[in-house]
Description:
It is a single chain. This protein is an alpha/beta fold. It has helices spanning 2-9, 13-20, 22-32, 37-58, 80-93, 107-110, 118-129, 152-165, 178-187, 189-193, 206-219, 226-240, 248-267, 274-278, 282-286, and strands at 70-74, 102-105, 133-137, 171-176, 197-201, 223-224, 279-280. The strands form two sheets. A five-stranded parallel beta sheet has the order 2-3-4-1-5, sandwiched between helices. A two-stranded parallel ribbon has the order 6-7. It is globular, with a radius of gyration of 24 Å.
Amino acid sequence: MGEVQADKDALDVTQAFKDSNIDEVLDTLDRELVGLQAVKTRIREIAAFLLVDRLRREVGLQAERPVLHMCFTGRPGTGKTTVAMRMATILHRLGYIRRDHLITATRDDLVGQYVGHTAPKTKEILKKAMGGVLFIDEAYYLYRPENERDYGQEAIEILLQVMENQREDLVVVLAGYKDRMDAFFSFNPGMRSRVAHHLDFPDFTIDELMQIAEMMVAKQQYHFDEAARETFRDYLKRRMALPEFGNARSVRNAIDRIKLRHANRVYGGGTVTKEDLARIDASDILKSRVFLEVPELDAVMEPTKGQALDRKE
């Protein structure tokens, strides 16, 4: 009799996993991101935990809703935003957020310039993100203790209240450099206590960056010839040694500049073939400022905010 009852109550975890369609999201993440095995493993562990938590609720094993706020640490271009987007999809498909929706914000979106300005700005962003995920990049800039007139602390206090009182309708992901996030948490222990999952995103190796570059150019229907491939590898070695290297972001910026040089080379070459239009030559890469003593004209333009990394590509 007991065996019959056990069979009746049994749940097919494999089927539940398939029905949730989170395997599709995890497979997409594997295809999108080179390397980052520890991060991918942790995402799978979180997904498995949430699936089991949902199954427990279905059979009446009630518990408090899991705390889902997260912290992603690592240098620029290591995939933090991409993972946050995929995490939003996983949370939505498992029923932990109402919308497959991610809003990205920085200090400028949350903190005002004068008294009475910060609260409306912060609440507006929270309203936009509600029901989904709020991704706050370089979150440590919210706290500036050296400036007594700074309004970042007000934004932090509003954020803390929402993270605690409305955690069933909003997941917050804080992101930035690890050492700065550690300092931020040390000054704001209330924030640390509300964050359940900490994921560290390491820098890519040169082989991983080459793989990323090959994927990027192939997606745009270009390709390196063999000399260009070796030259780009040399470019990466030089670029990685410079300050503010942005991992995959720097690779993307470099390829954008290479495409400009390729176009200028092809433009001045008379008749061209399909192969000419697709092939990146070593000469398109060797004109980068990392190989030159004098910066290129397209690299010395004064960058706008958020484009500082572009200057050294």
